[in-house]
Amino acid sequence: LKLFRENAAASSCAERPWDEPRRMSFYRALSKQLIKSYAGQRTLVPWYQQEQTLTPLQQWYKTTIYPVWFKYVVGPFERYQYEHAVAELRGYGLMFDDQHNS
Description:
There is one protein chain. By secondary structure, the chain is an all-alpha fold. The chain is about 60% helix and about 0% strand.
């Protein structure tokens, strides 16, 4: 190792990029700064686990409009789609609840 250093010091190459101090790229410095500034703003509970708060309009819609919409529109449509898929699969003998042997 000592011999290598002496040979490297005696080398005629004036510019050696590995001897220069390493500089960070702009994007790496920017991301480090953003992480430092964001660390103080982090909440203890992630956003997807925080309790959901509804506005009064959303609460009213959820309690009055949506049950009626589901009862007369979404529910019957999904039931029709289910019955249609079951009839088609039974026609081919592929209904999954009939296949207890596999």
